[in-house]
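In this section we turn from sequence analysis to structure. A common task in structural bioinformatics is to predict how a protein folds when a small molecule is present, because the ligand can shape the pocket around it. The inputs are simple: the amino acid sequence and a SMILES string for the ligand, here flavin-adenine dinucleotide. Study the lines below before reading on.
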Amino acid sequence: MMIEYENYVAATSVAEATKTLAEGNATVVAGGTDLMVQTAASGRGANTTLLNIRRISDLRGVALDGGRVTIGALTTITDLLTDGVVADAASILADTANRFASNQIRNMATVGGNICNASPAGDMIIPLLVLDADVELSAWRDGAVTTRAVALNEFFTGPGKCVKTEDELLTSISFNRPAEGFVGQFGKTGPRPALEISMVSVGVGGIVDNGGLTNARVVYGAVAPTPIRAAKTEAALEGLSLNEASIQSVLDVADSEVNPISDVRASDWYRRHLVRVMTQEVLQNVANG
Ligand SMILES: Cc1cc2nc3c(=O)[nH]c(=O)nc-3n(C[C@H](O)[C@H](O)[C@H](O)COP(=O)(O)OP(=O)(O)OC[C@H]3O[C@@H](n4cnc5c(N)ncnc54)[C@H](O)[C@@H]3O)c2cc1C
């Protein structure tokens, strides 16, 4: 489907971008790797104005300040692979980036776009939920840029749906630098190792000390209408010494928390099977550090 936008705005500041959004009928494009495919296929994102935010240089990069890591919305997947703060403070993000698409897509695709697309299978969402991230949403209200923070865990409301309003721009993502001893692991399954939308993805994080796991966080993608934190599995893991038998004991809990559907990529039965296999594998990796 061919979409003809009437106006094109290439904003260079958050103020300019949010003012354009406040005027209404504008579609944001960052890397375009989701949007271009979706507008061509279904007309999603059709609006009067196409708002390119790619030139807002303030929105790209990773910073560590006062124990808080902040990632600009326009930070690309390639940036995450090469960033020193990520490597040092949150390597689960780089590990996930390493399983994401191809080099060409990684160079264009942004973290903000991955979140705003709100796919239950969005890969970067998984480690960011493990890291307990917040997102910053900015809007032009009463003649100025105003911001609000939303916990990423409360951001998604359904497939392709989130709490961000039409006039809001996702400007950054932030989380506390994980404590000493934190281990985070990501796993994803698809027919190919990369360049593949996840059939199921799993993220696990926590503090590993003498084989025991505390502050456990367990996240699943592509097994429910939104990516989910698995609270009962986290509770079952808390304080557990990770070994073959104890890992086996939490798999029924994990199974009880997911609600997968059958679609072109996998049946619900197979997704449930993957949840067990991948939870086992990722927990074993966490135990091994
Ligand atoms: C071949 C191919 C392979 C892929 N492989 C993977 C993969 O392995 N894993 C994966 O998770 N995804 C994958 N994707 C999907 C896609 O690349 C990612 O979701 C990517 O992160 C989207 O980012 P973007 O900057 O391109 O977003 P865009 O396409 O520019 O935007 C996506 C949506 O978010 C909105 N948006 C973007 N940025 C903002 C913002 N800052 N504020 C408000 N709204 C915003 C747009 O309006 C649009 O609705 C793949 C896509 C392709 C084409």
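The first helix runs from residue 14 to 22. As an exercise, try to locate the residues that line the flavin-adenine dinucleotide site and compare them with your own expectations.
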